Amino acid sequence: MRRQKKLGTMGHIGMLGLSVAVALPMLSAVGASAADTPMKLPQILGLEDPNTFIPEDNPLTKEKVELGRTLFFDKRLSKNDTIACASCHKAETGFTDGMPVSTGINGLKGGRSAPASFNRVFSKGQFWDGRAATLEDQSIGPFANPIEHGFTTHDQLVAKMKTIPGYQKLFKDVFGRDIDIKDVGRAVASFQRTVMSGNSPVDKFDIGGDEKALNDSAKRGLELFRNKARCTRCHSGFNFTDEKFHNLGIGWDTNTVDLGRYMETNNPEDIGAFKTPTLREIARTAPYMHDGRFKTLEEVVDFYDKGGVKNPHLDNTLIPLKLTDQEKQDLVSLLKSLNGEGWQHVSAPKSFPK
């Protein structure tokens, strides 16, 4: 049996075995009679145990997750009832929106692409620039953005929600108190933690020992990924990300530089640096990079093959790779083998609180 350490993982993978439970039951209603029903997340091949990543101050319950799912899909949580979290994080496009940059209220455009919102249970700093320390903070950030959900303060959102009796009851049932923005974050974050991706063909081959899970091209791509292509210098670990920030030179060739992480830290070393995204479900999440400039994985591989775009802050992990055309094709085959399971249970509620 192959060991996950070949992928450059950090820490114990857990050897989860071959049986994978991915279906997560969703309750049709949230009731006071079972307002604290504990919930365990499934262990999925290739991923560490997600339950060890749940914060102590926001334990999972089925009712809280169901409330979070409702909030995630409800367009009334925008100023003019047109934008929900799910508007930019769609299951069919890997929980992104498939656009170079996201469109918010009144057709307004943001400056960055929508980050994938699966496997966030394992993530640390949230957003491309890591400005939210927790998933709870990330979950409420867009509500108070005049370009996204249209409110300028969280108080405006809470005031609107309090006009909906159904939400007043649900928050009392789940949290035992009136609607509060922090509880909105706790509920949405709880739902987001149920959206995962593992058990990909790469996992089945590399951990499960299934030789037929990958074709020959993807097998060669996996070897390149770990060695000549240097991918594991950033896309390491079971979630294929080092959770760090890197300057790839995006924007330096077109004078459209986004300062990225620097805006949060004021550290010159962070100028133009953005968080390494997971590569899981990468074939579903085009276009690529924080500004969505690349439409295909082939373009992305070509970009890395050239060593990024030179600038004073270019990450030292980037060098020209001198890959052959066949090697580039093999890497793309490997990347397309990272679609998995653990998110297919997600669907919009049939109705919303009134």
Architecture overview:
With 354 residues, this protein is mainly alpha-helical. The protein folds into two domains: 189 residues, Orthogonal Bundle (Cytochrome Bc1 Complex, Chain D, domain 2); 125 residues, Cytochrome c-like domain (Cytochrome Bc1 Complex, Chain D, domain 2), CATH 1.10.760. 27% of the residues lie in helices and 2% in strands. The protein is built from eleven helices and two strands; from the N terminus they run H-H-H-H-H-H-H-H-E-H-E-H-H. The protein has a two-stranded antiparallel sheet with strand order 1-2. The longest helix has 12 residues. It is globular and about 60 Å long. The protein starts with 61 loop residues before the first helix and ends in a 19-residue tail after the last helix. The N terminus is likely disordered.
Name the overall outline.
Answer: globular
According to CATH, the homologous superfamily of the largest domain is Cytochrome c-like domain
Highest-level CATH class of the largest domain: Mainly Alpha
Total helix count?
Answer: 11
